[in-house]
Amino acid sequence: MGFSQLLSRMATDNGHGEDSPYFDGWKAYDRNPYHPTKNPNGVIQMGLAENQLSFDLIEDWIKENPRASICTREGIDAFKDIANFQDYHGLPEFRKAVAKFMGRVRGDRVTFDPDRIVMSGGATGANELIMYCLADPGDAFLVPSPYYPAFDRDLRWRTGVQIIPVMCDNSNNFRVTKEALEEAYQKAQEDNIRVKGLIITNPSNPLGTILDKETLKGLVSFINEKNIHLVCDEIYAATVFRSPNFVSVSEIIEEDVNCNRNLIHIVYSLSKDMGLPGFRVGIVYSYNDAVVTCGRKMSSFGLVSSQTQHLLASMLLDDDFVEKFLAESSRRLANRHNVFTKGLELVGIGCLESNAGLFCWMDLHRLLKEQTFEAEMILWRMIINDVKLNVSPGSSFHCKEPGWFRVCIANMDDETVEVALERIRTFVRQGKDADAPVKKKHWQNSALRLSLSSRRCDEGVLSPHSPMTPHLMSPHSPLVRART
Ligand SMILES: Cc1ncc(COP(=O)(O)O)c(C=O)c1O
Q1: Are residues 88 and 218 in the same domain?
Q2: Got the DSSP string for 302-330?
């Protein structure tokens, strides 16, 4: 019996999307990780959307609250009860704390009902769980592009649901328009594909932008008109570091009396807003009773550990801590974003204007030899192999236009950011001045200079009709969670 017959189709197909050249970036990092003293010429990891800027605040709180941890002298009394707890409703105080935190992150303009919170293993599990509740194999969800690459795994792989990209482009800062939505929807109808919903990420990964109120209202009326679901992945809600304020779909439906609430679902997690991806705390918040009931049964496959629930219940119900954490975290993110974008501006590199997220959407289309995804790949390999930065190319986010790169900026310290910036600046300056003698740095090998002088900086025109590259995954952390 061949290997493919011994195992299931799912086990042997490529639905998880991890067998792709984009993992070369991760491999390059794994083989040669940067360290300021032990390996200063190594690869800097900028493909990881982690929020490590405010860990000290959480660590301080843990030290000051030993009773919240069940493995301390002060907290051991709760050990037995918590270690035995496995109810899929979750600890009541945990659900209460998460509901309160969600409200706080949304400026207390809206409240959340703890009884509507369904637990899952991170937003990854939450996104899959909601697909299982809403769609059958073969059904489709519309997803505005560029989008989080692991949606291809999370929404599709095990559920059999299809993704239909809604094409957005730089002509209007990648906004989701009614026309683009209609076009994607109509095309699906023509192809006899049943569209069950629209899923959006707000704030956006990879763009770092937020949806304005008018756009959100437009999306809500679109899905009501078509009688399809709206899933809002709001896991970056507290990463908004500058005005305008984040607007949640929960606020829109408060105002819209005609909205059918049974169609609205929020996915949330503490991976980004609190910087706790390893805790695997994700939730589905659904306004639909049947989804809450069914989702809760499904959550048996991905409960949050009761130890984690117990700890977070205390932490998130501490109003002073939450207040301070949210304010300080966004202040630090703003600062980091400012340093990074200003550092790029020095060599004329721009980023999409943004006010949220743990990354910048960097525009390198001028460095492409021609405006194609092949040229984007060549530049990307150069950045990984020669400049030694692991960034993610736009094509892995299904971006329609070549030349965009997502660069994560919150998973490292200030010194590493400076090193990364200096590498980028040297790279760009060398490109502009390829024939001038260059003072070679350790991390630059001769291949870089050769490729740079043959590359030059062609000012090509972006083609809005560039074909999409075939489905490829990004070297993004959740795909290799075990190793990160
Ligand atoms: C938009 C989006 N949704 C979901 C996830 C998965 O998050 P979690 O770590 O909570 O599973 C990510 C992680 O990067 C993400 O960017």
Answers
A1: yes
A2: SPPPHHHHHHHHHHHT-HHHHHHHHHHHH
Identify the three-state secondary structure at position 142: strand
The answer to whether 160 touches 181, Cβ cutoff 8 Å, is: no
pLDDT greater than 50 at residue 449: no
Model confidence at 434: pLDDT above 70: no
Mean pLDDT of the chain: 88
Looking at the fold, whether 287 and 141 belong to one and the same domain comes out as yes
Structural tokens at position 398: 């299904």
d(CA 145, CA 269): 22
What mean pLDDT comes out for the span 326-348? 97
pLDDT tens digits, 411-422 = 999 999 999 999
**Residue to mutate, 152, 199, 205, ligand 1, most ligand atoms under 8 Å from C-beta:** 205
Cα atoms in the Cβ-side hemisphere of radius 13 Å centred on 235: 32
Q: How far is 191 from 296, CA to CA, in rounded Å? A: 34
Instruction: State the DSSP string of 84-140.
Output: H---TT--HHHHHHHHHHHHHHTTTSS---GGGEEEEEHHHHHHHHHHHHH--TT-E
- Residues in the chain, overall count: 484
Say if CB 394 and CB 406 are below 8 A apart.
yes
328 found inside a domain? no
Q: Could you tell me the CATH number of the domain that includes residue 371? A: 3.90.1150.10
* Pairing verdict, β 117-121 and 281-286: antiparallel
Task: Output the pLDDT for position 4.
Answer: 58
Match 């482009």 to its residue by tokens.
Answer: 169
Longest dimension (CA), the chain: 71
Q: Is the pLDDT of residue 465 over 50?
A: no
Contact 275, 58 (CB under 8 A): yes
Q: Return the structure tokens found at 468.
A: 């999409």
User: Is 466 near ligand 1, meaning CB less than 6 Å away?
Assistant: no
* Ligand 1 binding pocket includes 126 (Cβ within 6 Å): no
Kindly give the distance from the C-alpha atom of residue 235 to the centroid of ligand 1, in angstroms, as a whole number: 7
- Measure the CA–CA gap between 210 and 204, rounded to whole angstroms: 6
| Cβ of 484 below 6 Å from ligand 1 | no
Cβ(383)–Cβ(422) below 8 Å: no
Query: Are both 248 and 162 inside the same structural domain?
Result: yes
For 181-190, write each residue's pLDDT tens digit: 999 999 999 9
